[in-house]
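User: Assemble these into one structure.

Assistant: Restating your components, then the assembled model:
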Amino acid sequence: KQEVTQIPAALSVPEGENLVLNCSFTDSAIYNLQWFRQDPGKGLTSLLLIQSSQREQTSGRLNASLDKSSGRSTLYIAASQPGDSATYLCAVDRGSTLGRLYFGRGTQLTVWP
Amino acid sequence: NAGVTQTPKFQVLKTGQSMTLQCAQDMNHEYMSWYRQDPGMGLRLIHYSVGAGITDQGEVPNGYNVSRSTTEDFPLRLLSAAPSQTSVYFCATKGGVHQPQHFGDGTRLSIL
């Protein structure tokens, strides 16, 4: 069974810092890895999707990398802002069950002014 | 463009009652799924569908029923509500193998 782990579970930093959130998965036979953001009491917002054949994806201040062979992904947030405060979730899918996502438990990020 | 719409947003039920959580999408996506999110457990897949008329079980299907009569709608039915089904329920859709999944805003359900 695919297991997804996110480290750290919580992170509190001052505004302006560059951050790295980590995600690891046990089965490297994935089709995609997706990073989500979840604000308190809200749904999940897709941030980035990396296909299994890709090494990284970028969107604004966010950069996600994927090392499929070692079962690792990192989400890099540049110049963090208080508005980045949220829980960040990592999820992988195997494609054999089309689109079924296996989620980590998330990293709760607080960026203070 | 509404995306994925879930109703209701909040619901309180008594043990033994039944209800249907609605999910509708306007993106013409074939793949739809239901997850529940519980503290300390993360998101877990309940049921999913790869197209109209096709459904299958996920990780935690017991106590839930689904059907998919149209591409747009994928309702989740609680047959006889139990306190263990208190959770936040999310519906998601996906347009293709290498496309991102899109989530609704969730239904917060409490079973007393």
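The two ends of chain B are 36 Å apart (CA to CA).
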